[in-house]
Write a sequence for this structure.
C-alpha cells in the first residue's frame, strides 16, 4: 500500500539544449500548485539551467520561457540544489549561479527520499 507524501524531488540531468528541462520545471511548478514541497536536484548539463543568463537561451513553445519557469519556481518556494562536482567541473562558483540556488551534495536529496518524497527524473 502506497503512502501519501507532500514532497517531490525532481532529478534533472538535461540542460539548456533539451526541451525536457522546460518540461521538468513546468511539472515542478505544477507540483507546487498541487500543494507539494518541490525540490530540484540538478546534475550534469542541468547545471547550466541555473547559470546566470544560461536559461535565457531556452524557450519551448507553448511552455513559458525557461527563465520564467525557474523564477516562478523559486519565488513560489521551490528549492534548487546544484551538484557540487558538476558545478566545479564547469568552472562555476556560487556567484555564477542564480540567487537562491544551493550548491549541495546528493545527501540533501537522499534525506528527502528517506522521508518518503516522491521522485521524478528528467
Amino acid at each position: 500500500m502506497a503512502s501519501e507524501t507532500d514532497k517531490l524531488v525532481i532529478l534533472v540531468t538535461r540542460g539548456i539544449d533539451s526541451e525536457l528541462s522546460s518540461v521538468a520545471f513546468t511539472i515542478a511548478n505544477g507540483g507546487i500548485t498541487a500543494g507539494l514541497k518541490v525540490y530540484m536536484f540538478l546534475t550534469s548539463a542541468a547545471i547550466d539551467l541555473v547559470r546566470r543568463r544560461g536559461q535565457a537561451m531556452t524557450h519551448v513553445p507553448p511552455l513559458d520561457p525557461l527563465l520564467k519557469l525557474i523564477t516562478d519556481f523559486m519565488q513560489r518556494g521551490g528549492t534548487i540544489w546544484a551538484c557540487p562536482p558538476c558545478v566545479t567541473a564547469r568552472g562555476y562558483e556560487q556567484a555564477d549561479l542564480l540567487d537562491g540556488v544551493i550548491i549541495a551534495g546528493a545527501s540533501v536529496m537522499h534525506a528527502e527520499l528517506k522521508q518518503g518524497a516522491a521522485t521524478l527524473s528528467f
